[in-house]
Amino acid sequence: MYPVFLKLNGVPVLVAGGGRVAERKVARLIAVGANVTLIAPTATETLAQHHANNDLHWVQREASPNDARGYRLVFAATDSTEINEQIAAHCKTEGIWVNVAHGEDSDDGEGGAFDVPSVVERGSLRIAVSTDGSSPALARRLRESLETQFGEEYAALTNLMATYRERASVELPTQQSRHRFYEAALDSDILSLLRSGRRDDAERLLERLLHTHRSESGG
User: How far is CA 100 from CA 16, 31, 57, 91, in A?
Assistant: First the structure.
């Protein structure tokens, strides 16, 4: 498997199926701004609410293989293995990336072009875990372990680092000086400060480090 993160903002994506597995797929697709169409005769309450909120377009009927035409990405998540396989086969013929989903213990079944990993999300930080489908239970266990290691302070850290990366690109004249600033920031007490809720102190620390490296580089 080749690991990749997709930019799906505004991209037309089809989800076939209206159950809990489809619900999980849809939640993440909406979160990244995909243009989601759901095809299913019935849907969970959460999916129906997404439709009511105009977060997706719901076509209330059974999905068929030809429905995939015109989409960049397809998730076959119906409760029929046969229909999922037919959709996957059609997508492969048409050159459309397709994920085949099944069951509650494992999101991804055989026959698809890609799997969806277990993911830990902390703001813009995403840590993905995959076993190439060989052990979904292990992937889930590793994700749970990572969730305890990487708390919400990492969301604040990535947010702050993004802000100061923009500052550094303007205020520090060389790639070497910027690299030294980033390393100094990550080697500092910034995570401890954020973990204890002292965001203002964390920002003051970054300001001091930026000033120091600006002075050292002659800025």
Answer: 10, 20, 20, 11
State the pTM of this model: 0.83
Measured between alpha carbons, how far is residue 194 from residues 58, 159, 208, 211 in Å? 41, 11, 16, 21
Show the domain range for 111.
12-116
Tell me if 20 is assigned to some domain.
yes
Pull the structure tokens for residue 132: 């190439």
Q: Report pLDDT digits (tens) over 44-97.
A: 999 999 999 999 999 999 999 999 999 999 999 999 999 999 999 999 999 999
Q: Is 111 strand, coil or helix? A: coil
Say which amino acid occupies 73: L
**How many domains is the chain built from?**
2
Three-point CA angle 93, 99, 104, nearest 5° = 145
197 falls within a domain = yes
Strand partners, 16: 39, 76
